[in-house]
Amino acid sequence: MSPADIPTVAVRDLPKDGVALLDVREDDEWAAGHAPGAKHIPMGELPARVGELDDLPDDQPVYVICRSGGRSARAAAWLNASGWDAVNVAGGMGSWKQEGRPMVGDHPGVEPEVL
Predict the structure, then answer these.
(1) What is the pLDDT of residues 53-102, one digit of tens each?
(2) What angle do CA 47, 53, 56 make, to 5 degrees?
(3) Which residue out of 24, 66, 76, 77 is catalytically annotated?
(4) How far, in Å, are 26, 54, 93, 104 from residue 29 at the CA level?
(5) Domain boundaries, the chain
(6) Whole-number Å distance between alpha carbons of 79 and 47
(7) Do residues 61 and 9 lie in contact, with contact meaning Cβ atoms separated by under 8 Å?
(8) Using CA atoms, how far apart are residues 34 and 16, in angstroms rounded to an integer?
């Protein structure tokens, strides 16, 4: 699947609520700041842990996000080739933050950030 064939959506076009969001960034990036309610599976672990996506709603696509959109594009391509309905989130968490979407982090008292 070429990059042009990967379904992609801008953060501003995502629904505000109820999105099945998969964050494929590394643990330190996730801990620094992530979207509330997102599922976290680092990209390198996705093939071994793909079964964890079974608990996501099956009536909508899985929206895949990373820091800037590169890793999530590769993960979305792999998921689509594996029978999932996956959409890359263009611009990643950088765009998420720029659009003013909510973020949470794993460090109490520290403002969530995008690494």
Answers:
(1) 998 888 899 999 999 999 999 999 999 999 999 999 999 999 999 999 99
(2) 165
(3) 66
(4) 5, 24, 10, 12
(5) 3-98
(6) 9
(7) no
(8) 15
Identify residue 107 by its one-letter amino acid code: H
| Distance separating alpha carbons of residues 66 and 83, to the nearest angstrom | 21
Paired strand residues for 20: 62
Instruction: List pLDDT tens digits, range 2-36.
Output: 556 899 999 999 988 889 999 999 999 999 999 99
Half-sphere exposure of 109 (CA within 13 A, CB side): 0
Q: Does the annotation mark 66 as catalytic?
A: yes
CATH of 3-98, one of 3.40.50.300, 1.10.275.10, 3.40.50.10490, 3.40.250.10: 3.40.250.10
